[in-house]
């Protein structure tokens, strides 16, 4: 378990973190999500003992470790740009932490064999890091972090340097591994899809402050601040009403509670299609559709269409809830 109580960090006159409270339950995977400069990595470094807070308390498994050095916190840390020992084999890299702790040779051999099998690298044990792919190096990094059997696992954007296909594969693999091990994990990411796919809960940070913490679906459906609403899911505005692009429907003919618009661009995103619109007042908007549904619409750039909300929508005045809207009047009803 990780508990942060009123943690603040300052770099000179600049506050990097302000009064952050966060609880990560035993066996839970929590993602720290936010834009660059929001304080995500700083918060992770505070938990790791690499950055001292100017105020607040850090508790791991019920023990106050605020002023404990990293090596006494029982943590495993995987950085974004993992730097293995290039002259060592994969086996030697994974065993390094155990050797530093003077573990028995037989224990080291058994533990390393278990980890290499767990991360799928047993066939690459005698290779050097430069002979591995980027994804394989990250698996080696995770095995090395797990070798010391840490109480807490900290991941600082571990897949950011990898291409999109490898990232998707490793996300699914990491979630399976986490469920198997039951480690308490805190992960930094700026990738919204990564956080929503991997995490049990997401902690959204903005400008050093914790905006909201909750399961992915809760943050998407019930954002508590305008920042969370816009950062967790794409939004578009029609007549002063803020909606999700996938909450809109289009029609070739006028329909009730619909606004007139022209399709200015259609963007093929693979599994979904983005339809960019210009409303009658000149304001831009967009709608998104699953590929099959888009084909049924039979629309093209330059078409004049009518757009309305298909379901519940978010409105400017009510960022913390869901309300039914009428585009014809711009009104909202609870």
UniProtKB/TrEMBL annotation:
- Mind telling me which SUPFAM superfamilies this protein's record contains? MOP-like, P-loop containing nucleoside triphosphate hydrolases
What Enzyme Commission number(s) appear in the record? Answer: 7.6.2.9
Look up keyword rRNA-binding and say if it applies. Answer: no
Q: Where is the ABC transporter domain?
A: 2-232
Q: Name one Pfam family in it.
A: ABC_tran
Q: Which UniProt keywords apply?
A: ATP-binding, Nucleotide-binding, Sulfate transport, Translocase, Transport
Keyword Protease annotated: no
Matching Gene3D superfamilies: P-loop containing nucleotide triphosphate hydrolases
Q: GO molecular function, one example?
A: ABC-type sulfate transporter activity
Taken from the UniProt entry, a GO cellular component term is:
ATP-binding cassette (ABC) transporter complex
Name of the protein this chain belongs to? ABC-type quaternary amine transporter
Q: Which organism is it from?
A: Thermoleophilum album
